[in-house]
């Protein structure tokens, strides 16, 4: 193991600096950690919640020596984390994985759920540089359109489309519907996608038809985070080591699994 990996893979105890409620189910946690504070958009960290579990989380922001993650409460570990307060201790490893390339031409981001967190980190990097920065964002309901205002403020004026499944905000449909129309109208040099995998699959299918370069961040079950245990495999790739960001060419290679199934911790395949 290289010295660099040894350092990033060492579990560091740190205190929660702040907790911010983003939606009824989602909170942002900020910690001090010099290594994770050097992360690039797309990378993730492993967060140890004492006495519960260690889970992978995308990095949402870095500032000085602090790092933030945005977490949706879905099960034991995330619910336990949601109960934690500033000053309490957690453990961190990372940052791990690769990052989004930072294309500065005409860029479109497509996001959903907590996938908007790494896209916000990316948008902050691209805002001042990209020729055009557009966004299509979708959620079940208005409350779950995470970071809509922040993302809108970073994008080129009048270039954000929001959708909700219940019609409580924006267009009442899935994000992929207006995306299809937008791609017929406008030329983009790069699409960055992060969110539920069925959404990523549809974005992939739409961009493949048109030959548009795309990068998507994928999630798989993770234990080690450093390419050793094999729990995060998709095709010939290990998402923690070879991803989590994959190019259109790589997504093509794993098309039989993309948006369709993943491995469970018991090694059986789970439908997505
Ligand atoms: C690279 C990556 C980045 C992620 N970024 C975020 C993020 O920014 N914000 C966020 O809220 N969530 C993120 N997740 C998902 C997050 O890791 C899971 O929601 C969390 O592990 C659930 O744990 P739990 O004990 O609360 O729920 P559980 O009840 O244990 O699981 C609920 C669901 O979460 C998923 N999950 C459980 N354990 C893991 C694991 N070890 N690795 C991956 N998925 C798991 C499974 O799909 C499971 O069905 C990310 C996952 C990956 C792989
Ligand atoms: S999480 Fe162990 S190999 Fe990826």
Verbal overview:
Helix 5 (176-185) packs parallel to helix 6. With 272 residues, the chain is of the alpha/beta class. The strands form four sheets. It has a seven-stranded antiparallel beta sheet with strand order 4-3-7-1-2-6-5. A seven-stranded mixed beta sheet has the order 11-10-9-8-12-13-16, sandwiched between helices. Strands 14-15 form a two-stranded antiparallel ribbon. The protein has helices at residues 3-8, 76-82, 116-126, 148-154, 176-185, 197-210, 239-242, 248-253, and strands at residues 12-23, 26-32, 44-49, 53-58, 61-63, 66-72, 89-96, 106-112, 132-139, 160-164, 171-172, 190-194, 214-217, 233-234, 237-238, 245-247, 261-263, 269-271. The protein has two domains: 3-95, Translation factors (Elongation Factor Tu (Ef-tu), domain 3, Beta Barrel); 106-271, Nucleotide-binding domain of ferredoxin-NADP reductase (FNR) module (Rossmann fold), CATH 3.40.50. The protein is built from eight helices and 18 strands. It starts with a helix and ends with a strand. Strand 12 (190-194), helix 6 and strand 13 (214-217) form a beta-alpha-beta unit. It is globular, with a radius of gyration of 18 Å.
């Amino acid at each position: 193991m290289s010295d660099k990996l040894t350092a990033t893979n060492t579990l560091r105890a740190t205190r929660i600096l702040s907790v911010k409620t983003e939606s009824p189910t989602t909170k942002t946690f900020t910690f001090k950690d010099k290594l994770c504070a050097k992360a690039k958009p797309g990378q993730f960290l492993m967060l140890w919640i004492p006495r519960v579990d260690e889970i992978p989380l995308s990095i949402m922001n870095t500032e000085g020596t602090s790092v933030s993650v945005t977490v949706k409460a879905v099960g034991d570990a995330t619910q336990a984390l949601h109960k934690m307060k500033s000053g309490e201790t957690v453990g961190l490893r990372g940052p791990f994985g690769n990052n989004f390339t930072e294309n500065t031409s005409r860029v479109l981001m497509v996001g959903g759920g907590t996938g908007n967190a790494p896209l916000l980190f990316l948008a902050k990097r691209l805002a001042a540089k990209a020729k055009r920065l557009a966004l299509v964002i979708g959620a079940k309901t208005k409350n779950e359109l995470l970071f809509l205002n922040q993302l809108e403020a970073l994008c080129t004026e009048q270039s954000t489309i929001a959708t909700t499944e219940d019609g409580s905000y924006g267009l009442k449909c899935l994000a992929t519907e207006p995306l299809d129309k937008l791609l017929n109208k406008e030329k983009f040099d790069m699409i960055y996608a992060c969110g539920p995998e069925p959404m990523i699959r549809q974005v992939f299918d739409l961009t493949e038809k048109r030959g548009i370069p795309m990068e998507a961040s994928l999630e798989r079950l993770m234990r080690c985070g450093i390419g050793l245990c094999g729990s995060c495999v998709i095709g010939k790739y290990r998402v923690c080591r070879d991803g989590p960001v994959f190019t259109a060419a790589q997504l093509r290679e794993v098309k039989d699994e993309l948006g369709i199934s993943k491995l469970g911790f018991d090694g059986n395949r789970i439908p997505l």
